[in-house]
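Protocol step 4 of 6: structure prediction from sequence.
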Amino acid sequence: MRLVVMISALVLLASCGEPEVDPVEKARQDEADIAAVKAAEVPPPVPVTPETIGAPDVERYDLYGAGCNFAPKGSIGAVAFAQPGRGYMKIDGKLVTFAPDIGSGTLPLGAKGKYTAGAWSFMLDLSEEEGEEAGSEVINYPAQFILRNDRDQVVYESPGIAQCGS
């Protein structure tokens, strides 16, 4: 009889320490835990160094036309072309074609402020009030350029000059 009473007491004590768990709350907490683990798995962005789009590239790919070209501060070579119908960058030795984001702001000569490609998007922001003539039908504007990867992480950013002309 004593053994039965002791076992019953132990069972009661063991069950007293565990609060009743609401299945809905448990499911919500499990989802939050899974989301936290997934968020921690996002790898850091891999920096990209855009390459200069040179005269041979312009000729080979017929990149002539009106728009704005971006050159980073301290460089005279353009690393991005923003034209009304397309944008271009040279990444890892390959010319990448971008589509204009029609919902983004309009820059001089019909260029857009944002362009997207499969794994990339770039934004060109320039100060139209501070433009200076640099030649016949060409104006240089102080500008900021940002390249993002497909996870919307910044992989390249630089101030520089946007040269807009035809």
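Step 5 (inspection) to follow. The helical segments are 2-16, 23-40, 55-61.
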